[in-house]
Amino acid sequence: MKKNPLVSMALMIGLSTSLIACGSNTVNQVSAQEPISSETTTTTTNEETSTTTVKVEGTTINGSELFTERDLEQEPDLTNANKISLNDNEDITIKEEGVYVVSGTAKEATITVDVLDTEKVQIVLDNASITNTDFPCIYVVNADKVFVTTTNSKNTLSVTGTFIADGETNTDAAIFSKDDLVLNGVGTLTITSSDNGIVSKDDLKVTGGTYEITCSNNALRGNDSVVIYDGKFTIDSKDDGIHAENSEDTTVGYVYLGGGEYNITAVDDAIHATTILQIEDGTYTLNAAEGLEATYIRINDGEVVINASDDGINAAKKSTISTPTIEINGGNISITMAQGDTDAIDSNGNIYVNGGTITISAQFAFDYDGMAEFNGGTITVNGNEITTISNSMMGGFGQGAPMDQGGMPPQGHGGFTGRPGH
Hints:
Radius of gyration: 24 Å
Oligomer: single chain
Number of strands: 36
Structural class: mainly beta
Helix content: under 10%
Strand content: over 45%
Largest sheet: 34 strands, mixed
């Protein structure tokens, strides 16, 4: 195990002197902060409160309930901030709420947050770089909420080997938090991980910043939710790009994307939710086995480009919150599918297209087990605009094969009217 308790203890004792010499507070001293409520309540945008997962009413997520004013502040007040300089083989333990500015380069060092349930901590990365072999670079043991904020700088966190557990806790991410985690800022955070990139065992929020994540598991994972207001994301994942799942409660595990720019390459799903995946806006370039997967998928707006080898958009029964459903109300959606037994838009329940522009290049455009309604918008399948949604539409009938309005070859042109064995 890489930890040296004597080094960590010496750092805790000696840090006070070094910080006072810099004109800053000690790590264990509470900084001047705005009042923090000790009540547990649903998040509002008017005040900073102790948060719980927003309970979804039906299948609609109200984005205005998800972010507090402090969540959305990209440049923190550093007037009373504590300053921390990183050093090799020296762990930092934060025991009091406050704002902590972290700079420097270190190998085998972990910033651990262990404060009261009612306390918040903000870690501000300012040209910081940590490389570890087997443990998170940032580890939140206990807190009400922790912010990881980037200044206008480049920051890197890297874990190269096999993660070791902390007791019964499987610490499996470069940033690993047992409590609510918020990422924001105006700088760049590059993460390389031999497992997950960023994990919150509660809610994971991102409201700003630039993120470059390469990992062997999920890039962004929240147990109860992953909600994003804005940000730029370049993700290369050997599993899912964005993943929300609570193995003990299938009524949570939702993804809400209010905006941002996403370039995701994933071996499995680009974006995966247990319950609801709701896209309000943003620009998405998704290359994966499946682009979007959840029980209920709603797209209200945005520019979505999907290149997939299994299903482009897939609504599957992962939760009891509703019948699997794909609902498209707006946006520009382009789906290109690989050859074989693949579907551009696949629902184990229903499909509703109420608006937007959908462009599909695929052998099978739509597959659904319930009902499909085309109430508005434009759908083009393999270069042909359609006016109805037919089940298991075929496009791979040979070069130059004409299509009818349902996306099917006319009678006598060869091919067949349904998927074999479907």
